[in-house]
Amino acid sequence: MTRDHPRGRPGPIEDYALLSDLRTAALVGKDGSIDWLCLPRFDAPSCFSRLLGTDRDGHWKIAPTAPVREVHRRYRDNSLVLETDFHTDDGVLRLIDSMPPHEKNRHDQPCLVRTVEGLSGEVDIKLRWVVRFAYGDAVPWVRRVRETEPVLDEFVLAIAGPHTAVLRGDILPQRAEGERAHELVVTVRAGQRLSWVMQWSPDPQDLPAPMDPEQEIQDSEDFWREWTEKISYTGPHANAVYRSLATLKALTYAPSGGIIAAPTSSLPEAIPGNRNWDYRYCWLRDATLVLLALDDFGCLTEATAWREWLVRTVAGDPADLQIMYGVAGERHLMEWEADWLPGYHGIAPVRIGNAAYRQTQLDVYGEVMDALHLARERGLPESEETWALQRGMLRHLEKIWPQPDRGLWEVRGPDRHFTHSRVMVWVAFDRAVRAAEEDGLPGPVKRWRAIRNTVHAEVLEQAWNPELGAFTQYYGGNTLDAATLLMPSVGFLPGDDERVVRTVDAVQRELQHDGVLVDRYTTGDQPHEVDGLVGREGAFLACSFWMVDALAYCGRQAEAERMFAELVGLANDVGLYAEEYDGVDGRFAGNFPQAFSHLALVNSAAVLFGGRTRAQKSRRNGLTQ
User: Fold this and answer.
1) pTM to 2 decimals?
2) pLDDT for res 291
3) If DSSP states are collapsed to H, E and C, what string results for 502-542?
4) What is the mean pLDDT of residues 100-126?
């Protein structure tokens, strides 16, 4: 299915800022347009889809009608209340955007609050509201409603199937002549404020009540200020660490504690190419890094909630363990293509769902065991049930660990013995041995220790390439992979081991470029032999932070700190990172904002400036400190 699209494409990925209510998220461009919003959850169909199409695919824009000379944006303190100042020849206008966070009440319905404030002069603004449910495929029935009982209430109502949106405001927009859109043009003078609130409901017969926009903005700011007050970080680049932690909180689905990889789908990793994926799900691979990032800097409630989500989600037959799940633990993430959307700047396909959930990736067993071991060390109580769950996972892993898999990068090429996967198999049995030896938990420790030692010896023999002088991406290969930089961080080898040092040097030579950018592995314009895809993707930002960690573990602290500072400088104007960075064009690529990038930043700060590291023994139960 195709259709003709007019002009009006989204801006660069780095031009967007994030709003979140801990249920779903919106992306706001520098042009004042909300171009992506899924309702009522992160993984629900979008009602604003301009990010993957054009104006007619849904957006909500508020901006001056006159040319804008400058745009300055900021979040208020460490909150997610966004301020955008538009400077025109006629005056300066401030746009304030917020999504009131709902942490505890499962029945709270999402809403967007938008306020304009005249700072100087007189500025004509245009509000344009275009709602398209079902990823832009469902044009709603939109009408203006005026109710008098029990009180006077006027609003614009949009209905399509199971979705209902209500727009209230100081001045309501009117139907645009000849278009399926609503518009408003009004002059805002210095000191004047106008507000609009968009609310969602699953039932057009049970609409949400009007809200006080000023109070909602204040409550949002208070929520985020109180939350960030518990962050205990005093090292360098504190603003970057605080913003990254707030972003991780913003990507949390509060009812379950699950943290999504990103709130977007199909933002391209390669231009041109077909590396477009849906990241609105929770990856088990993030488990340890999430716990480290949250626990290291005082976010204990969130760390506990994530651990509980993890245990609930992986419960059951270990043979059914997946690499990723829905925000509430859903298993089936069927992948399909929304072929009516042209894709970001015309780069298709637009994928909904993620078929990688069916892949075998052995490293996730190590990630889960590592995360639960870390939780145990940090004082989160272990129960008979959770330890039985881990033992069940290990019994299954004992049967399947010799198999090849798809690896950390979820390749869609052939299965291989990926080095990182083998290292994480070692991690799984290493953490099991430590659980028995350090915590006295029951289990066949001799058998676990034997498998651990076998895997360790196998990796050293089959992943090391003496001609390259480095660990390779997979057994018997001759290509490099930035994931080998994680060997010292997980405790597989010490950072000063000659093989680690030489691997770090090799990755710097072959995969690092444009200063501090590090590729995952080499890609090109032809179908890649490993991932089966085309297109040269941008540098994976998490890999750049892994290089920071590896340099620190190798004793190159000053170099690591310089690299960290440069990476902090690559964030956009409001401190956010995408999945990748294109060093040639100097712009973001991939889904945005990316939890993995922010996780890597926070954990690099811990490695460099005194937090607890991944392989470090660290007890809070009185045994060790």
Assistant:
1) 0.93
2) 81
3) HHHHHHHHHCEECCCEECCCCCCCCCCCCCCCCCCECEEHH
4) 88
